[in-house]
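Try this one yourself first.
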């Protein structure tokens, strides 16, 4: 490409920081391998033949597509694009899960998120056969300790009216339950 831009092998060689004889030899080797003359060489300089222009246009297109493919591959490998399949054993409307997914979409809009509901066993099978990328569950299962990360913890609060019989009839462990008086609601 540089040789076609400079129309001089000497200037192209200087730009590429190689000897003119090396560049000239490489171009002849390329032409020989392709079975076509790409450059017209004269005392006034070097210019592409019609075949050379067509070949160069094709090469530029291929290089552009290759660079685009590499950029897309790198973005996908960094998790910035593609599809993320999440197995869920919890409600999306409760806790931090919905807010977390919304924030992820805000930061990575090129990532399509697909959710799959299932039981613990279904989601563990889905993880094993790679039909989901990750699973979010409410409790851990034995045997998966090395592959899990606690995301957050939430307190569960039970509230009953002061007139309700449950606080007086339950066991001592249940006595920690909140009791709401009629005026507090």
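Now uncover the answer:
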């Amino acid at each position: 490409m540089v040789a076609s831009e400079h129309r001089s092998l000497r200037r192209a060689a200087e730009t590429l920081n190689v000897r003119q004889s090396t560049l000239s030899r490489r171009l002849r080797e390329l032409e020989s391998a392709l079975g076509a003359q790409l450059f017209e060489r004269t005392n006034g300089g070097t210019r592409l033949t019609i075949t050379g222009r067509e070949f160069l246009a094709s090469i530029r297109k291929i290089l552009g597509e290759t660079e685009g493919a590499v950029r897309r591959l790198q973005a996908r490998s960094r998790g910035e694009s593609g599809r993320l399949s999440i197995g869920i054993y919890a409600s999306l409307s409760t806790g931090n899960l919905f807010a977390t997914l919304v924030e992820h979409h805000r930061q990575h809009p090129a990532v399509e998120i697909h959710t799959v509901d299932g039981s613990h066993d279904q989601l563990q099978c889905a993880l094993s056969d790679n039909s989901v990328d990750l699973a979010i569950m409410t409790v851990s299962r034995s045997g998966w300790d090395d592959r899990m990360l606690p995301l957050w913890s939430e307190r569960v609060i039970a509230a009953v009216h002061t007139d309700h019989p449950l606080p007086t009839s339950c066991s001592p462990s249940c006595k920690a339950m909140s009791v709401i008086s009629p005026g507090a609601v």
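Discussion: Confidence is low (pLDDT under 50) at residues 175-181. The radius of gyration is 34 Å.
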